[in-house]
Amino acid sequence: MAYAAFRSIGSYVPSKILTNDELSKMVDTTDEWITKRTGIKERRIAAKDEHTSDLGVEAAKKAIQRSGVDASEIDMIICATISPDYFCMPSTATVIATKLGLGKITAFDISAACTGFVYLISIAKAFIESGMKKNILIVGAEKISAIMDYTDRGTCILFGDGAGAAMICATQIKQEAIIDVHTASDGNYADLLMTPNGGTGSVHDALEQEAAGCFMQMKGNETFKVAVRTLTKDVIDILEKNSIDSSAIKHFIPHQANYRIIKAVGDALKLKEEQVVLTVEKYGNTSGASIPMAMDDVYEQGKLKKGDLMLLDAFGGGLTWGSALVPFSPK
Ligand code: UT7
């Protein structure tokens, strides 16, 4: 049987920084409020001509190079994004594949918002374990600034742009395998975090849609409460199911939505500070890109070593959530 190994990680952040002080000139907020309520100090914003696929391409180049897999051996690419280059089609995955010259491989996007990267891992694992694919490039890429209402202070302070990518490859070595992945959703909470306009579910006519701008809307406080409740249960469940104690986790890499959510979940697992990966202060919430960006931050610091056990967790629009137990298994 083939197992799925998490071989490599890469990320990319746009160069433009948007600080809390700059945001406080755009909406009625302060650096103090944002820092206290979210832990965020600044976030990155992509240039006007820099598309989601461009961010994904840069992250993917690093992940491919670090995996030791030749680009010609990649047989599938999946991209998680809520800010695709194009509405409906073509998928951002096909754009990235073409920009990377990957040839005529299977390529598609998934929509699971901030949980996108955990969903990607579960899909890649299933394709590899079934024997259908061998080397899968997964990309979480977001240009959230393009779907953001910069008059909505309850939402715009939280988000930023960026991308992360990883190579998931077939292996015969069980110790290298991704241990488990949980994915879940509940559409009853769809209205907590959504882009209400622009799709066929929209009741607006074309002119109203244009005026509404098809921006993201979030009921932050309700989302916060469901996130803490749901994530805490999910990470406890995945650890119990696999008989793994939280002390065995080398890196807890949560979705970087808000420091207070991360702290609540980390405390529930009795994690030590050095186990918890935090990038929220410098990048904010980059939705489906946040986990691989945070993982690459640890890698770039030289702290992600072969065999390290990672616990990932994420929560986002849908609502969706998930967690994964992943050993880092470079070649
Ligand atoms: O990534 C996918 C999932 N998303 C999340 O997990 C997001 C979860 N939510 C959050 O991170 C937090 O709910 C926010 C950071 C968005 C908001 O923090 P909060 O502590 O839940 O604040 P709140 O919405 O309960 O608002 C508290 C007060 C309100 O004023 P009143 O009614 O108490 O007078 C808001 O109007 O803070 C006010 N407020 C602000 N004040 C200054 C809301 N946004 C701001 C702001 N600056 N940017």
Compact summary:
The chain is an alpha/beta fold and 331 residues long. The chain is built from eleven helices and 13 strands.
Care to describe what's here?
- By secondary structure, the chain is α/β, with parallel strands linked by helices.
- Helix 3 (52-67) crosses helix 4 (92-100) and helix 8 runs parallel beside helix 9 (259-268).
- Helix content is 33%, strand content 24%.
- The site of oxa(dethia)-CoA (UT7) has 21 residues, from helix 2, helix 6, helix 8 and strand 12.
- The site of oxa(dethia)-CoA has 21 residues, from helix 2, helix 6, helix 8 and strand 12.
**Low-confidence sequence ranges:** none
**Gyration radius from CA atoms, angstroms:** 19 Å
Largest sheet: 5 strands, mixed
What is the total number of structural domains?
Answer: 1
Mean pLDDT across residues: 95
For the record, what is the CATH homologous superfamily label? Answer: Thiolase/Chalcone synthase
